[in-house]
Amino acid sequence: MKKITTIIATLLFISTAYAQTDNAQQTVNMALSDVLEISFAGTGSATGNTVNMPFSSVNDYANGITSNDQQLVVRSNQKFHVRVKANTSKFTYTGSTSPAPAMNVSNVLSIKVSSNNTGGTIVGGYSNFKKLSTTGKEIIKNGQSGGNQNFSVQYKATPGFSFPSGNYTVDIIYTATQA
């Protein structure tokens, strides 16, 4: 019986020692495209919240008022630049005065980059308030690739005393472009 057990153990050892193996191989190919997105942190979309700037005192009219920070987020797999412009040269007026007053954006509304966490640089003097116009001006240059590159802007409005009461609105457009 001992001999049979030894033979069985030897056969099991030999069959285990000569076990066969095989391999299969497959290639995985990822086709990455250039991607770029700019959005407002407050809404998570390309449309930001309305920035309300109420003028309620003589001091507001004399010195202007500044908005809270408006944070934008850029997600890109390459370096990028950001430009800003006003959609139109004049504010749209809603109020009781007729004919509607024509307030020029470039005379009244300024912008500055108040914080920059893009890895790029603030250009064109936009670390201080500069007038907005309908011509796109570069404000961030060589922002670094990443999924949460953000910066904040502030607006300053100084309409003076020449315009009647009412609501004056304009759309501001931010454009991100890969470098």
Broad structural category: mainly beta
What is the CATH architecture assignment?
Sandwich
Helices, by number, come to 3
Strand content of the residues, in percent?
Answer: 35-45%
Assembly state here? single chain
Over all CA atoms, what is the radius of gyration?
31 Å
> What is the class in the CATH system?
Mainly Beta
Helix content: 10-25%
Note the gap between the termini.
82 Å
Overall structural domain count: 1
> What is the makeup of the main sheet?
6 strands, antiparallel
Give the overall pLDDT as a whole number. 93
Low-confidence stretches: none
Question: What is the number of E strands?
Answer: 12
Order of helices and strands: HEHEEEEHEEEEEEE
Q: Examine the coordinates and then state which fold CATH places here, giving the name of the CATH topology.
A: Immunoglobulin-like
